Amino acid sequence: MIKDNQPLSVIQAETVAKSTHSHHVNSSSRIPNFAQMNSKQRCQALVSRNILTQEEAHFLNNSGALSLNQAEKFIENCIGGFTLPLGIATNFLIDGQEIFIPMAVEESSVVAAASFGAKLARTCGGFFSEPTENIATCQIQFIVDASINIHAIFHEYLKEQIFTYAHQSQPRLAQRGGGVKSVELRSLAKPGYHVIHINVDTCEAMGANIVNSIAEEVGRKLPELLPCAVGSKILTNLTIHRVTKVKCEIEFSALERDGYSGEEAAKRICSVWEFADLDPFRAATHNKGIMNGIDPVVIATGNDWRAVEAGCHAFASLSGTYKPLTKWFINNNNRLQGEIALPIAVGTVGGVTKIHPSATACLKLMGSPSASRLSALIASVGLAQNLSAIRALGCEGIQKGHMALHEKNLEMMRQYDHLPSISVVEDQIDKQ
User: What is the pTM (predicted TM-score) of this model?
Assistant: First the structure.
């Protein structure tokens, strides 16, 4: 453990001493010309330094459906691919359309839970979404003299000039029907510190590169329009103009299980949700369960799951307290009703969506949706996943079903470690 007052030289000496007892003795993380090698050469460079065995290098230097040539173009210093299991969640009926949901995930029970939640929602017609526009937002931070009435200037001429300049900076986007939709001004807590938000319809793209380009163009222009110092110019992942909303209802009879009537189960589900609404510690795990459903679909379709994660958690905190991304209650029709609202910035063009063979196939499997439609499908999976989790949590508990499905993983771990299976151990105990 590093002590607060420990000199850096002492820390460095101790670190070097510890490294000499590690597995990678004499292995520096600096490998000359590593970036200029191809993936096979990089693997062999690691093998020659005893960092990988030949067998491990063989596993890693394999990119599955993606060719190594493609993989090397996607990222820097590529040595191969990393494969996740790809499953299909069934039972999804979304806006009257039957949909198969591809999910790339390593965790047991996720695909089964999503399928079960979707099955419950089918009792009342499945999931229903509200259309949303594909609006991405960029920020241009700037600093002015605190005595300047920036809001008056903004509405007098600045807003219109920025709108026009930003829109004209992306003529091809405008030709496709997209472009700048609005410009907003926000003032930060520090006097003189402000931010311009430019909201852009990015058509079928997630839009990060588009709005980043606009932000930098406007950032260069802004000092000509206003005496100011320009700071950061980049998109925000908190896309509040791109919020996807989905809802569903469930008949009480579908919720009967383990001695609970359907109405009792519905009330217990609402109680589980209320706990998350009252307690950010519980809300964190509640939302993690929702992302259990969302992330695998975002990954399978070649989209940026880190951006979606960041946006969703920031959105959950907008009120000043971390809140659940769903809401559950018993409605006037005496049914359990669930709702989800969250920003899902995904695209069906751009990034790797059109060049990763698996992502292309997964999008086709889902009916080749538009970007807006894809966000609705993904939100529906998040709501289904949440329903399945809080139904189990409110009734029989989460571990019973999870561990039953996790048993296959445990069996593989036992085989890897040459340990006897639980059934063998139980048989031995019975014979004693």
Answer: 0.85
**Which tokens is 20 given?**
């000499």
**Catalytic residue check, 107:** yes
User: Looking at the DSSP assignment, which residues form a beta bridge with residue 103?
Assistant: 87
Is position 402 annotated as part of the catalytic site?
A: yes
User: Whole-angstrom Cα distance, residue 188 to residue 181?
Assistant: 23
User: What is the per-residue pLDDT across 199-253, written as a single tens digit (0 to 9) for each?
Assistant: 999 999 988 999 999 999 999 999 999 999 999 999 999 999 999 999 999 999 9
Name the H helices within 317-367: 357-365
Terminal CA-to-CA distance of the chain, rounded, Å? 47
Q: Choose, from 197, 327, 402, 406, the residue flagged as catalytic.
A: 402
Question: Is 58 one of the annotated active-site residues of the chain?
Answer: no
Q: Which of 201, 249, 295, 304 is catalytic?
A: 304
Single out the catalytic residue among 40, 151, 155, 288.
288
Residue 263 falls in the annotated catalytic set: no
In angstroms, the CA 373 to CA 352 distance is 18
Mean pLDDT, the chain, whole residue set: 89
CB atoms within 10 A of CB 388: 26
Beta-ladder partners of 140 = 196, 233
